[in-house]
What we know:
The protein is 80% helix and 0% strand. By secondary structure, the protein is mainly alpha-helical. The chain has two domains: 177 residues, Growth Hormone, Chain: A; 181 residues, Growth Hormone, Chain: A (Up-down Bundle), CATH 1.20.1250. Helix 8 packs antiparallel against helix 11 and helix 8 packs parallel to helix 12. The longest helix is centred in the last third of the chain and has 33 residues. The radius of gyration is 20 Å and the shape is globular.
Amino acid sequence: MKKLNKMWPYIMIWIFYYAWVIVFTSWCTSSDITDKLMGSESRILLHSLNLLSSAMFVWIIKPEKFKKYSKVGGIFVLLFSIFSMIQVSPLFHIGSIILLSISLGLLNISILIPMIYILNNSEKLLAIVGSNLLISILIYLQEIKFLTISNGLYFSFIMLIISVLPVLFFKEEHLDSTKITHHKLNKTMYLTIILNCAFAILCKGIGKAFVMLAIDKTSILLNQTFYIGGIIGGFISFLIYKIKKLDNYFSWNIIFGLFTVSMMIYGYAEENITYHIFSILMGIITTMGMINMYYCLGIIGQKYNNHSYVKISIVTIGLLGGVIGTLFGNKISNFNYITSSRLLSVISVGIILLFLVLSPNISNAYYNDEIDKKEREKNNLGGLLYH
């Protein structure tokens, strides 16, 4: 309990700030509130430059300086958020968006460092599950018009202020930077990056595109059920990790299995209720996958104290996984129902084959190395649970 009291700034900023970034700045969660806040085109620019600047800062920032950079990033995020809402001229607005996106990238990496290297696995899980649950809850509140344009703008800015306040309590002595290395990682470990990219492409890109196709085909408001599924997925992930001793390999099995099932349901869907089931499943999968992706990054990064792995993960998942997933998703959105149904068969088979190929190596990467053996002996626990 005493350690958790010391770690609360790192947990709280990850829950609230990460949720704020996804809900109010990401193009893939666009809503009337955020479009009114900065405009749809500006939001796409903000999201793209945010990913790019994050990928840049992860190579520049020294982990031991995370406290300094987090404070600078927090101040600039607040400042340029205010500037972006002031409609002086189009040039001033675009300039504010660009500077805001750079500031977001700086703060993103500054809070990622303590999440990986300071928090233990249980604290990581609490932060990651909490943030993803909050994301689904906030977007659901927008979908049911509980958060509207009139009150949502104020809520967004107040939440941002609350989100960055924990940086005032960051302490550099919590991080033992002498343990952080930049050595080469075992090649099998990079398969975990491939797995995370596969999720970003399949679930975040292709899966969400099929949800949008279902909405266009049926005129059903599936976004609400999608985010209900997201809330359910958050609780399922927490229970799985609790029961399986923080073992995310089991969770990946469920995610890719449910994705294959959901694709098959979409291919044979005829009744509205079937589309709602498909949408809920995609919401569950998306939230569980996001939790797994960041949890995997956190535990592997800390277990090996290898900052090279963190750098490559951010660049690969953020830029390659995100961009390719978006391109595939946009392409699929233009398909007709027959073409998309045929494509589903290929995707479903491909997912099964991909996971069958990767599973043995991923299992080996997670468990069969000297570090895990020492940790299991130390804690008398299986899997990746250590403190």
